[in-house]
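To illustrate the input format used throughout this study, we show a single complete record. The first block contains the structure-token representation of the backbone; no residue identities are included at this stage. The design step must infer an amino acid for every position from geometry alone.
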């Protein structure tokens, strides 16, 4: 698995996962092709890589138009082919809510990113690392998480990571990147960090 700042885009969050045996985040694998049928016509959606975020191509399209979401790819192609405007949920049509499909997509994956919500902030934990440092709550090299929050009143992506040599917070706002090296673990996990 490759890591990127947009990793949350590379996973479909299965909100029904408490009812199933599959993980709550289902990977959207680059270059995967999913075949399905709508209105007795076969469609194929292919996931393509666009600077570390997935885009979608409906292979029924002779033009090979790239869409930002699976829903857009399905709905726009359906509209062109049948000359009817309708709306389908891309993740549902692709089978991400189907336990059998989800289990196939999750095969051979050892770690699944997960989300937690604390004080109305949804934190996407991408990787875990451990250490023997109690003051870091035993977190260690390899830990990575991200969430959106306001930094200096600007909606920003906050990315936390721990390496072998440092704890670091990277803050992304539009095309700008700020790097904070917390003085202690309380700052790393927001207890004394001022946003």
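Output of the design step:
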């Amino acid at each position: 698995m490759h890591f990127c700042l947009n990793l949350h885009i590379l996973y479909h969050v299965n909100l029904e996962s408490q009812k199933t045996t599959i993980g709550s985040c289902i990977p959207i694998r680059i270059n995967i092709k999913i075949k399905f049928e709508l209105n007795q016509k076969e469609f194929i959606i292919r996931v393509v890589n666009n600077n570390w975020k997935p885009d979608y191509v409906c292979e029924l399209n002779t033009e090979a138009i790239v869409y930002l979401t699976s829903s857009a790819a399905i709905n726009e192609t359906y509209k062109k082919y049948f000359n009817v405007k309708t709306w389908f949920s891309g993740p549902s049509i692709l089978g991400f809510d189907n336990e059998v499909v989800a289990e196939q997509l999750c095969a051979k994956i050892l770690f699944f990113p997960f989300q937690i919500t604390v004080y109305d902030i949804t934190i996407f934990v991408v990787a875990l690392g451990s250490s023997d440092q109690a003051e870091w709550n035993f977190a260690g090299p390899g830990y990575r998480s991200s969430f959106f929050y306001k930094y200096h009143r600007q909606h920003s992506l906050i990315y936390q990571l721990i390496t072998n040599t440092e704890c670091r917070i990277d803050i992304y706002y539009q095309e700008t990147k700020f790097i904070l090296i917390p003085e202690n673990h309380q700052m790393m996990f927001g207890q004394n960090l001022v946003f």
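Structural context for interpreting the output: Helices lie at 70-82, 90-93, 99-106, 185-188. The CA atoms of residues 115 and 124 lie 4 Å apart.
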